[in-house]
């Protein structure tokens, strides 16, 4: 059923997690340009705003100029040189962030064809937790999940039981 509606297990789990914590009455600022998951959120009743392609490491003004109540970054932080500065600019008190986890059996991702498509960070779960804590957020919920691939080999075998993604919902600490 889900495979016909959503292109991947990752999208299904992310949408279920989003629905668990965020109502459609809230405005979502999704870091990055419009993408397939932005469309899925909109199709499920969410109001979604995106960045316009600016280099977020250099220009974070959209985070301050836009009105939103929820900040999301789905598989974006690993591409940033300093995600801490991004979190410092977030106006919303609610954040949902997902990252691909560092895999012990695979090197950091780097596209051979796209010079911008690479992972500067390959996080472990505790690193994202610490990043959120240092930026003033408290983690409310989290989930890890695998992402098996339909290939034959040692690495595809490990992907069947090694968590690949980490998804977190956090709220800004109140004094």
TrEMBL record:
<protein>
    <recommendedName>
        <fullName>Methyltransferase domain-containing protein</fullName>
    </recommendedName>
</protein>
<dbReference type="InterPro" id="IPR029063">
    <property type="entry name" value="SAM-dependent_MTases_sf"/>
</dbReference>
């Amino acid at each position: 059923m889900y495979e016909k509606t959503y292109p991947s297990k990752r999208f299904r789990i992310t949408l279920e997690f989003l629905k668990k914590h965020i109502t459609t009455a809230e405005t979502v600022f999704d870091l990055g340009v419009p993408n397939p998951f932005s469309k899925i959120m909109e199709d499920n009743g969410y109001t979604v705003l995106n960045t316009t392609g600016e280099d977020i490491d250099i220009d974070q003004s959209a985070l301050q100029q836009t009105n939103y109540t929820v900040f999301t970054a789905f598989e974006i932080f690993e591409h940033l040189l300093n995600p801490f500065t991004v979190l410092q600019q977030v106006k919303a008190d609610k954040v949902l962030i997902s990252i691909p986890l560092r895999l012990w059996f695979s090197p950091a991702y780097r596209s051979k064809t796209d010079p911008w498509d690479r992972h500067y960070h390959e996080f472990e779960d505790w690193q994202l937790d610490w990043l959120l804590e240092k930026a003033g957020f408290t983690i409310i919920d989290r989930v890890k999940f695998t992402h098996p691939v339909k290939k034959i080999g040692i690495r595809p075998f490990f992907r069947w039981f090694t968590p690949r993604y980490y998804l977190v919902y956090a709220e800004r600490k109140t004094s």
